[in-house]
Specification:
Layout (H helix, E strand, L loop, with lengths): L3 E2 L10 H12 L7 E8 L5 E11 L10 E9 L5 H23 L1 E2 L2 E2 L8
Parallel strand pairs: 1-2
Antiparallel strand pairs: 2-3, 3-4, 5-6
Amino acid sequence: MVGRVRKFSKAVSNSAERVHRLQGILGEIDYRGFEYSLQEMSDGNGELYISVRIEWPAPDRDDDDKPMHFGYSPFHCTGEEDERTLINAVYDSIRAVEEHERAEMFKFRGKRVFDPHANL
């Protein structure tokens, strides 16, 4: 299965060509049913960027009987990056997702010892 790219959400005006290019690249990435969506954003100072949101099925951290939910891990780009840079950014985001999920699910004597949501 090739990766799914969900609908593009347009918040500000950006180049449709860049968005189309990103959708094409993301659509060719296949990893465990993860999905990708794009949203144009502004930093408030007139600079435009594109937020790439990665979504994945994940079990509820506190209740195994609850249905799967989708977590997300956004990163930002201009849409002008070369293909390798974009693929590396997606890969790094997926690596962070997997690390986060592993930390949530790892338990010692029934307790999460690497809980990414716990305060120190």
